[in-house]
Amino acid sequence: MKIGIVVYSQTGNTLSVAQKLCDSNTSCGNQVSILKVSAFKEQEGEVSKIRLKDTPDIENFDALIFGSPVHGFSLAPVMMAYLLQLPTLSDKRVACFVTQGLPKAWMGGNRSLKQMLDICSRKGAKIVNQGIVNWPKPEKRAEMIQGLIEQFRFIDESK
User: Fold this and answer.
1) CA distances in angstroms from 22 to 12, 75, 76, 139, 154, listed in the order given
2) Most buried of the four, 28, 75, 121, 140, by CB within 10 Å?
3) Using CA atoms, how far apart are residues 115 and 112, in angstroms rounded to an integer?
4) Which helix (H) or strand (E) holds 127?
5) Do 62 and 2 touch, CB atoms closer than 8 A?
6) How far lies 41's CA from each of 15, 19, 31, 68, 81, in Å?
7) pTM above 0.90, yes or no
8) In the chain, which stretches have pLDDT less than 50?
């Protein structure tokens, strides 16, 4: 199965989770690629003003994992701009995760994940999993990442 992990990461935290998900899915026999989203002005807060620099093509993937940090209690504007510009996610199995610096999911993680899932659903995605990783406590973070790894393994059902 071909899996695309589309990630927006400013500090490298979200990207580090994406790499672990990549390693896990690769060890299951999948062909996995990490694709980065970026913008010309990373700090732009207004989604309509964001000009994307890197817009990964997702057409040839069987499944997708989208990952983004939380910014200001919402989905990072760069990831939101990327998802909104996608023409369709029909027939795609999709999993989404967010990383956040605050310790509780209700401090922006839940809202960010809901925004991501809503956009993907409106574009026809079949949502198969979702998760939040809180960054502050290393021991809890490792446990949350391990939970994502276990939940986000894609198995090729055609074999």
Assistant:
1) 15, 22, 21, 21, 11
2) 75
3) 5
4) strand 126-134
5) yes
6) 19, 24, 32, 16, 12
7) yes
8) 159
